[in-house]
Amino acid sequence: MEEEIQSFADNGYLIRRGLIDERAAGRLVELIDRSLKPALAPVEFEADVHYPGAPESRVAPGGNTPRRLLHAYSRDEQFQAIGRHPKIVETLQALMDAQEILLSQNHHNCVMTKHPGYSSVTSWHQDIRYWRFDRPELVSVWLALGPENVDNGCLLVMPGSHKWELDPGRFDASLFLRTDIPENEALLATATPVELERGDVLFFHSKTLHAAGQNQSNTVKRTLVYTYRAGSNQPIPETRSSVFDDIPVS
Ligand SMILES: O=C(O)CCC(=O)C(=O)O
Predict the structure, then answer these.
(1) What are phi and psi of 24, to 5 degrees?
(2) How many angstroms is it from 121 CA to the middle of ligand 1?
(3) Quick one: which atom of ligand 1 is closest to the CA of 114?
(4) How many CA atoms, within 13 angstroms, populate the side-chain half-sphere of residue 243?
(5) pLDDT of the residue at 242
(6) Ligand 1 centroid, distance to 90 Cα (angstroms)
(7) Dihedral sign, Cα of residue 70, residue 76, residue 78, residue 83
């Protein structure tokens, strides 16, 4: 684990291959598919986010394409089992150097679905930009439930970006990294695809710059995503980070 802790500290992300066994991952896929037809609320639709490539509106072609099944943790015991999975929790304890770990119900806590035809591009951003905690030190857990690659819109990261101090001028009004200014060219050249297989788990820091493309394949991509904090890193009261109680998982 020492090497993995160092790699996370250096790069702002860590991949643990095959952390969730095939049977559990397969059952999750079945559960997610049952939750998509019809899509069980609460759901975020591609058309809601207005990201590049998203349908114009809910009544445009593809307007009913789900992007995220929200509030994953409270939907089903199977989602809870992953949220509290011992291998995930022990990795988080090591990466955050903390015994007490809590799962946030306010951030991520969703199944991301990327459907062929109507998925959007997520531009470069740091998740912490809209989150409010004592310290910007949270870790998100991204469980691949099938292959994730450039073709189906896998995550891209900029290794080491969680340590960069970037002036506000590098970002646009929505706090996405600007791709139209020469100052960001060298950063954009470091983009690294995170290619995963079913059962692989990506751990990434809340300051790591990441992005994702559209799904150009002909199958749906499904990913379960949770965010965790250490017990000592409290959400700021009366912000969107403190709306729902965090769940202790250790
Ligand atoms: O479109 C994607 O898969 C990326 C999602 C993402 O970066 C986020 O929700 O923070």
Answers:
(1) -65, -40
(2) 9
(3) 3
(4) 7
(5) 98
(6) 24
(7) positive
**Residue located nearest, by CA, to atom 10 of ligand 1:** 127
Separation of CA 87 and ligand 1 centre (Å): 23
Contact 13, 142 (CB under 8 A): no
Could you tell me if 219 and 32 are in contact, meaning their C-beta atoms sit under 8 angstroms apart? no
Pocket of ligand 1 (CB under 6 A): 112, 122, 127, 155, 210, 212
Q: Structurally, what CATH architecture does the domain formed by 2-248 represent?
A: Sandwich (2.60)
Give residues with Cβ within 8 angstroms of 128, minimum separation 6.
136, 138, 206, 207
Q: Can you tell me whether residue 157 is helix, strand or coil?
A: strand
Q: Is the pTM of this model over 0.90?
A: yes
Amino acid at 2: E
> Closest ligand 1 atom, CA of 223?
3
Are the C-beta atoms of residues 55 and 47 closer than 8 Å to each other? yes
d(CA 69, CA 32): 9
- Look at residue 1 in the predicted model and tell me its pLDDT: 86
Digit-coded pLDDT (tens) for 111-130: 999 999 999 999 999 999 99
Q: Which atom of ligand 1 is nearest to the CA of 68?
A: 9
| Residues 105, 58: Cα–Cα separation, whole Å | 26
